[in-house]
Amino acid sequence: MKTSLPFGEILDAADALSIEDQEALIAVLRRRIIESRRQEILKDIHEAEQEFDRGQCRPATAAELMKEIIS
């Protein structure tokens, strides 16, 4: 089970690290964020494919989408 730490405590702990370790932490966090966003995109794609397969949406051109957004 994940436990949540207060943001301030995390910042204090990061301040206690060497500059090199802080840079490594930033790199790790960036990679994790990228991977999380990638997983969210894959989930959205999967959901959209399921909606399309169920006939809940239809293909549209960019012009059709813009017309719908503007109106």
What order do the helices and strands come in, and which of them pair?
Elements: H1 7-15, H2 19-53, H3 62-70
What would you note in describing this structure?
The chain has one domain. The longest helix has 35 residues, at 19-53. The mean pLDDT is 94. The protein has helices at 7-15, 19-53, 62-70. The protein contains 3 helices and no strands. With 71 residues, the chain is mostly helical. 0% of the residues are buried.
Radius of gyration: 21 Å
Q: What is the element string, with H for helices and E for strands?
A: HHH
- Residue share in helix: over 70%
Q: Detail the poorly predicted runs.
A: none
Oligomer: single chain
Number of domains as seen in the coordinates: 1
How would you classify the helix and strand content by structural class?
A: mainly alpha
Approximate shape: elongated
Largest sheet: none
Strand content: under 5%
Amino-to-carboxy terminus distance? 47 Å
Report the average pLDDT across residues: 94
Number of strands: 0
Give me the number of helical elements: 3
